[in-house]
UniProtKB/TrEMBL annotation:
<dbReference type="GO" id="GO:0006508">
    <property type="term" value="P:proteolysis"/>
</dbReference>
<feature type="domain" description="Peptidase S9A N-terminal">
    <location>
        <begin position="49"/>
        <end position="283"/>
    </location>
</feature>
<dbReference type="InterPro" id="IPR051167">
    <property type="entry name" value="Prolyl_oligopep/macrocyclase"/>
</dbReference>
<dbReference type="GO" id="GO:0005829">
    <property type="term" value="C:cytosol"/>
</dbReference>
<protein>
    <recommendedName>
        <fullName>Prolyl endopeptidase</fullName>
        <ecNumber>3.4.21.-</ecNumber>
    </recommendedName>
</protein>
<feature type="domain" description="Peptidase S9 prolyl oligopeptidase catalytic">
    <location>
        <begin position="526"/>
        <end position="732"/>
    </location>
</feature>
<dbReference type="InterPro" id="IPR029058">
    <property type="entry name" value="AB_hydrolase_fold"/>
</dbReference>
<keyword id="KW-0645">Protease</keyword>
<dbReference type="Pfam" id="PF02897">
    <property type="entry name" value="Peptidase_S9_N"/>
</dbReference>
<keyword id="KW-0720">Serine protease</keyword>
<dbReference type="GO" id="GO:0070012">
    <property type="term" value="F:oligopeptidase activity"/>
</dbReference>
<feature type="signal peptide">
    <location>
        <begin position="1"/>
        <end position="27"/>
    </location>
</feature>
<keyword id="KW-0732">Signal</keyword>
<keyword id="KW-0378">Hydrolase</keyword>
<dbReference type="InterPro" id="IPR023302">
    <property type="entry name" value="Pept_S9A_N"/>
</dbReference>
<comment type="similarity">
    <text>Belongs to the peptidase S9A family.</text>
</comment>
<dbReference type="Pfam" id="PF00326">
    <property type="entry name" value="Peptidase_S9"/>
</dbReference>
Amino acid sequence: IGRRISAVLLSAHACAGLLLRAVPARARESRASRAVSLSAAQLPTLSDLADPRQWLEDVEGEEQLDWVKARNAESVGRIGEPAKSECYTRLLAIMESDEKIPYIGRVLNGKYYNFWQDEKHVQGIWRRCTLDQYREAEPAWELVLDLDALSAADGVSWVWGGSTLLDEGPEVRKERVMISLSRGGADAKVSREFDLDAKAFIAPSDGGFELPEAKTQLSYKDRDTLLVGGAFGEAEMTDSGYPRSVFEWKRGTPLSQATKVYEGEQTDVSVGGAAYFDRGHRYELRYRSLTFYTASYELKIGEAPFAAVRVPADATIGTFADQLLITLRSAWLGHPAGAMLAAPVASFMAAADDAAIAPLLAPLFTPTERVSLEGSAETKNYLLLSCLDNVVAECRFWKYADGAFTLERQLRGEVGVSPSFSAVDSEGSDAIWVTSEGYTQPTTLSIANAVAPEKMEALKALPAFFDAEGLTTEQLFATSADGTQVPYFLVSRSDMPLDGSTPTLLYGYGGFEISLTPGYSAGAGAAWLEKGYAYVQANIRGGGEYGPRWHQAALKENRNKAFEDFEAVARDLITRGVTSAAKLGCQGGSNGGLLTGNMLARPTAGSLLFGAIVCQVPLLDMKRFNMLLAGASWMGEYGNPDTDDWDFLRTYSPYHNIDAEAAYPPILLTTSTRDDRVHPAHARKLVSKLLDIGKGDGTFYYENIEGGHGGAANNKQRAFMSTLAYDFLEQRLVGGAD
């Protein structure tokens, strides 16, 4: 789980999932009986919440999938078969290129592990080599696990879900992991124990651990004990679909005999536990995620009993050696929201009250109006803090020695280029990976030492997958409705005419404190920028670009701020002459799908600002989102529609706000049947309503039968879905649409 433990132990994108719990279709109901009148077609509305399309919430029902397949065929027929497109060939070649950087996921026993997919390895292979071999242009990789062969043997399209290490301390050789695999890319996974020396799974008959398909959380407590949640049925799950209990499962015993050691409430988002070593110190953590942004923690140090960690409910914690690390989302004991603090963990746990805690706290990061904390990484002796200064990357190197942290240096990037730093082996050395990339700068990977990070050894580099000659990156600011200055990045040709004629794609997210920073997107470059079009990334409120305050400014009843920011960027692009409404498209997925869904439905956006919209794996029905899959876990972000919160949620529920009398720009909605995080019914129902109210000419829909929340399970599917979106946008914004 790493040494830095967050409140939910999941990223905001990964943090919401549930096994498919389909809502049954109306029994034996025929298509004819579901035909709706013109008045019923507009349901649900803000005044009448009756929903005639709940039948589409049955994820894998035969009739529902027939409806999906019919919509897929219509959209492909109108846009064109992506697999026959020049764009598809180009994107697939990029995705399967042997020149991609083989990033290292783990370093164990002197071996560097990489997961790889290409044309020959569609599902992927897990492989390893030494550092000297990795330095070579073509490393001599040793195959560890072949997912294509495993899929063929099992008759299942397995998608890699990562590995969990058995860590018995720095002096003990590491040769066991739990490998997680999902069917078609779903969040629910099967977990099996794997022997790294034998390069084989350990069968249960030989004493190996194996967990059934579930939304499982797990950690080794010791060689013969797993801490497990999520594999014990619905009674042990929260309303959000996460585990609500922790069990200890002993090797060689049935899972049914595992002992419950910790539990939370049904209304919690998630409950979990983990045991780990941190630079010679042994910890065991238990947590209850009360909401998406609040949690309670219990910590066990060595052989001492568990004790509550006295931090604010919205703080996150971690450890570094014998230090407790605390990151604040609200002000506490004189320290502002967004700060990171350190304290001796033993003294902190022994402190009786805030008065005793306060003098123990040493600030490692204090935010300003411009500078926020983006994340952290740890080497053996250094804590690396990744910061954003007006959305420009910066890294601060804190050395830990003799019970104290000392700030040794700061390294700053430049506008449009993002350097990032991570540990090679956090327990064994101070070696660091240094990655640098920009919108038009291919990614490079170097290795250095935290002692002198400026001295880098270049290891790998992407080729230029698209022609970036003549392209420039600018950081600009738009003024939102309330006067807030909203940054955005514009990538365009240096000789772009400012006459509104350039087809432009505006991308946004604006939620869950996730920052959008510059990165090399070979796909966007090859499919869009290389053709002379412009690309824009908006840093709207709801994200984390300026820390918790930027995120909290667009929570719940203030969600409109994110939408107003996005509209402000669109207007600014039009005012500057970069593009025009007819030439401007927007794109977003997941929470960004809610954003782009509102760009369709809001009277201040729609065709006034956009000529085309791409809405991917979206959240759109804000009345029922908390009842669908992982939706209950997001009420901390959006609110609870079963309370008075509906008074503001109704204002940004696209499903309820679209109307037969309004004019809408063309929209492509995409999702995945196997998405067990955001229910595919969000997109299904909005598309069905658009068709029913006579908006079929401008409505396009494609649902990948596999893919999970990422929308695709392998490179061919990824290339297909990307091509579909780019072809749709180009046809609508450039010309040639039907």
